[in-house]
Amino acid sequence: DLTGLRLWRHAREVVRRGTGCEVRDEVWLEPWLPGTGWLLRAFVAFLFRHRHRRLRARKGGRALPWEPSPG
Question: Which residues pair with 13 in a beta bridge?
Fold first, then answer.
């Protein structure tokens, strides 16, 4: 597998909030190589923060406090 991942599961939830909405992404991943999970989690966090910034820039809006899921 070229992705380096044994498991990749992504769920997106869009919730209406007043005149706008809140977008939540949740990602579960499991790397093929032991000990590389920390690196993949850091990359995925960077990727999704970037995607959300682009989405806000295109559609307007503001950032909400972000906290990574435990694990």
Answer: 24
